[in-house]
Design goal:
By secondary structure, the protein is mainly alpha-helical. The protein has helices at 3-23, 28-45, 54-73, 95-113, 117-127, 133-140, 144-163. It folds into 2 domains: 3-73; 95-163, Winged helix-like DNA-binding domain superfamily/Winged helix DNA-binding domain (Arc Repressor Mutant, subunit A), CATH 1.10.10.10. Helix content is 69%, strand content 0%.
C-alpha cells in the first residue's frame, strides 16, 4: 500500500472511528489509542478486497481494540452518552431557534443513552459512523435483516419518546 493510499484511508475514517470509540465509552486518550491500533493493524493486515469491506473491517477492528484496551486496563469505562447529532447552527436562525435545537439535541442524546446497549451501538454506527446496514452487520456480527429490525425498533422508540408529552415532575 502506498503512502498516498494510506493517507486517503486515514483521512476518510479517522474521525468516524474516533467518534465511534468515544461513544463506546472510551475517553479521548483511549479512543485515540484504539484508532491508532486500528490503523496499525490496517497497515499490517489490510483486507484484500478493500472497497466495500473496508469500513466494516475498520469498525470491527476498532471495536476489538477497545475491548482489548479495557481488558488490559482491567477497569470498566462508563458509557459516554454524548452524541453529536445537533445540526450545525443555522446562521439565519434566531437565538430562540438555536436554543430549541440545542435542547432537542440534548434530549435526543438522553433518549439514545436510554436505549439498550445493542440498539444504542447500532444507532451510533448508522448515524455517527454513516455505515450501511450491510457494513453494520459485518462490524457487529449480526445479520443485515437483524440490523434493519433493531434500527427500525430503536428509531420508532426514539420517535415515540421524543414526541411524547413531557411528564410532570412529582
Amino acid at each position: 500500500m502506498s503512502a498516498a493510499e494510506f493517507q486517503t484511508v486515514l483521512e476518510r475514517y479517522e474521525r468516524p472511528l474516533l467518534a465511534y470509540a468515544r461513544h463506546q465509552g472510551a475517553d479521548q486518550e483511549t479512543a485515540r489509542d484504539a484508532v491508532q491500533e486500528t490503523f496499525l493493524r490496517f497497515i499490517r493486515d489490510a483486507p484484500e478486497g478493500k472497497g466495500e469491506s473496508l469500513a466494516p473491517w475498520l469498525f470491527t477492528v476498532c471495536r476489538r481494540c477497545l475491548i482489548d484496551i479495557r481488558r488490559k486496563n482491567s477497569r470498566l469505562i462508563p458509557m459516554d452518552t454524548t452524541l453529536t447529532l445537533a445540526a450545525a447552527p443555522d446562521e439565519s436562525a434566531g437565538p430562540d431557534t438555536a436554543l430549541v435545537r440545542k435542547d432537542d439535541a440534548g434530549r435526543l442524546r438522553g433518549l439514545i443513552g436510554s436505549l439498550p446497549e445493542r440498539e444504542r451501538e447500532l444507532v451510533r454506527l448508522k448515524f455517527e459512523g454513516g455505515l450501511s446496514y450491510k457494513d453494520i452487520a459485518a462490524a457487529t456480527g449480526l445479520s443485515v435483516s437483524n440490523v434493519g429490525y433493531l434500527l427500525h425498533h430503536a428509531v420508532q422508540t426514539l420517535r415515540g419518546q421524543f414526541h411524547a408529552p413531557a411528564q410532570p415532575l412529582s
